[in-house]
């Protein structure tokens, strides 16, 4: 005869549902923003740095139950994933060691992951920040 364990979670689930219903949209948005700030700070620390503009470009947008951290810089994604950069004219001009250089062939920008590692490493802290805000709101 198999052994069975029966659990009735309707009581605790009812309490959780009541607590979630009591939350107001601004409280949920504040919790989402708290989690996003953790990611934003991690991205700013890990972003490739020449002038610091890339890290600073990441902003938070939160609304209700969702949000995002993102950058509008055209080179944010190529820095993360790498890219081939082709010259628009006869040659590609760039500043390097020893002055200005011209390149006639496409060049490969190697990936410098900073968003992915932030998500992987900072998710526990982001979840904890979210939970603290929710706990404070219902506490």
Describe, in plain words, how this protein is organized in 3D.
With 139 residues, the protein is of the alpha+beta class. The protein has a domain at 22-80 and 110-138. The chain has 5 helices and 6 strands. A two-stranded antiparallel ribbon has the order 1-2. The longest helix is centred in the C-terminal third of the chain and has 24 residues, at 115-138. The model has no long low-confidence stretch (mean pLDDT 82).
Topology, element by element:
Blueprint: H1 10-22, H2 25-46, H3 53-56, E1 59-63, E2 66-70, H4 76-81, E3 83-85, E4 92-96, E5 99-103, E6 107-109, H5 115-138
Antiparallel strand pairs: 1-2, 3-6, 4-5
Key features of this structure:
139 residues, alpha+beta, two-stranded antiparallel ribbon, two-stranded antiparallel sheet, 5 helices, 6 strands, 50% helix
Kindly state the number of beta strands.
6
> Sheet with the most strands?
2 strands, antiparallel
Question: What's the pLDDT, averaged over the residues?
Answer: 82
Q: SSE order, as H and E?
A: HHHEEHEEEEH
Give the distance, in angstroms, between the N- and C-terminal Cα atoms.
45 Å
Based on CA inertia axes, which overall geometry fits?
Answer: rod-shaped
Q: What order do the strands of the largest sheet run in, or round the barrel if closed?
A: 1-2
Q: What is the radius of gyration computed over CA atoms, rounded to a whole number of angstroms?
A: 23 Å
Give the percentage of residues in beta strands. Answer: 15-25%
Structural class: alpha+beta
Report the helical percentage. 40-55%
Number of helices: 5
The parts where pLDDT drops under 50 for at least 5 residues are: none
């Amino acid at each position: 005869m198999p052994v069975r364990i029966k659990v009735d979670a309707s009581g605790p689930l009812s309490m959780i549902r009541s607590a979630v219903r009591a939350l107001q949209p601004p409280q949920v948005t504040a919790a989402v923003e708290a989690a996003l700030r953790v990611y934003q700070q991690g991205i700013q620390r890990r972003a490739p740095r020449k002038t610091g503009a890339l890290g600073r470009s990441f902003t938070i947008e939160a609304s209700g139950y969702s949000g995002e951290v993102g950058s509008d810089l055209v080179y944010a994604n190529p820095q993360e994933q790498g890219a081939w950069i082709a010259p628009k004219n006869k040659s590609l001009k760039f500043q390097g060691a020893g002055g200005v250089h011209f390149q006639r062939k496409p060049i490969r920008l190697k990936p410098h992951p900073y968003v992915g590692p932030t998500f992987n490493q900072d998710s526990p802290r982001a979840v904890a920040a979210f939970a603290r805000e929710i706990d404070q709101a219902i506490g």
